[in-house]
Design goal:
16 strands, 2 domains, eight-stranded mixed beta sheet, single chain, 340 residues, 10 helices, Rossmann fold
Amino acid sequence: MKEDDLMNTVGLMIPTKEHEHRRVLRPCDIASMKHKEQLYLCHGYGEICGFSDEDYRASGAHIDDPKEVMRKQIICDPKIGDASYLQDLADGTILFGWVHPAETKERAELLMRKKMNAFAWENMYEEGRAVFYKNSELAGKAAVLHAFQLYGTLPQGKKVAILGNGNTAKGAMQILYQLGAYVDVYPRKAEQAFLHHFQEYDVIINCILWDVERSDHILYLSDLKKMKPHAMIIDVSCDAHCAIESSQPTTFTHPVYEIDGILHYAVDHTPSLFHRSFLEDCGPICAHYLDILIADGNDPVLQEANILKDGVFTNNDIFVYLQMLENNNILFKNKMAEND
């Protein structure tokens, strides 16, 4: 038996999520891999980033039709959790990307029913830092740039509050400082301080990853009427009806909505706007971990990120989060109905 026969094959799918342009490997990343011959890419995979099929073939990868690529043992897609083809994958397929199984009940049930295995990028940490931290920074930067375009004004001179002080907040802060905004940052422990001053801000940016055990909100629906007229909320975290009760994820097709005169922006994959930057930052990282997954997946970072094993979730917080989202959604709809 050949050594290759003992290794996993990897299919790199073109994301099906609306306006998702991120790709995971450049030809130069593939050329650096030890097991490049195990990679299969869809026709046209890199065109959005300026790479032809021939570029990828020359690097050592295979090019094939999507139906064939989907049959590989590992499927890699940045937004794999949102993929429309999940139900068409073979039972037991290994998923590698942002899975976010708790985003919807239907997604979690599908992953369990098909006995999927998943190595979730959102759970990958190395020496205490998120492996894909640069994507989080990019999310903050991209959200600010896109939202202010839709707001119709530059950040210069605007008073902005940022909730959170992680990588996403760092990215938002960098762009805002560069564009001349006045910025106040409120870490998790400073929520009360923010609540004493939230009426002063032109723009509020939420970058807090919500604690699944919390049943409250930082900004309630009723708080919108206390904000500056025509202010804007940018919810980069995009946890529906969590930190910001009135927030729910939006799309690039319909990126904003208004409640009580407050513009809300909550696109949940803003780094797609700068897909080439993502690829430059994260291509080498993906190449490194795909090489390991192809061989045996024996790596502490990957093992911690192995959130789903043969359809069984390794952490029950997923079901707690799903219940919280359902409860928050019902409460929000009831409040909106009362306002009408």
